[in-house]
Amino acid sequence: MRSKRLYSPLDRLLIQADTALRTLTPFSGAPTRSSPAIPLKDAELSDEERRHAAGLMRINHTGEVCAQALYQGQALTAKLPEVREEMEKAADEEIDHLAWCEQRIRALGERPSLLNPLFYGLSFGIGAGAGLISDRLSLGFVAATEDQVCRHLDEHLDKLPAADAKSRAVLEQMRSDEEQHAEHALAAGGWRFPAPVKYGMSLVSKVMTKTTYRI
Known about the structure:
COQ7_proteobact; iron
């Protein structure tokens, strides 16, 4: 969690650069909570099941990369200090998810997506743009994004190999956290996006899920 000191614009740019490097560099994010997968025993998975589980976890890892970038972009341009603090707090909590997903991907013998830098840059730009327009729009975008993430997690929980309890434990905890992020964003004054906007967001997210499953 960041301290309450006041940062200059240059300080904030340097923080954003450092966060981007830590997000995109393997094993650089230090979680504040241990992975829910740690206490569970490894399951016997076939090669096909292992690759499928790794592909799903790779999608979720890239989703967390996008969330981190979105929050950082919004924090950079947020007009109200309390909104900036809300974004920074959410970004800090997403570091746990990043680390858990990467740990699980590596344990399954795979690597994170090679497209993460591209999706980070795009998400950062979207977040910064939303923050420039309106804090309420920015918070509403967070809530809508987290709703979309929860739907993806529900789908992945259904698609995971039945024996992969470790990945399942990670996704279940992530879903609980993401649901809270959405509720906090709305409680802080975020707009509730209409269904057509959410549908458009879901179409964009499908590009990410289709490409990062294998790449």
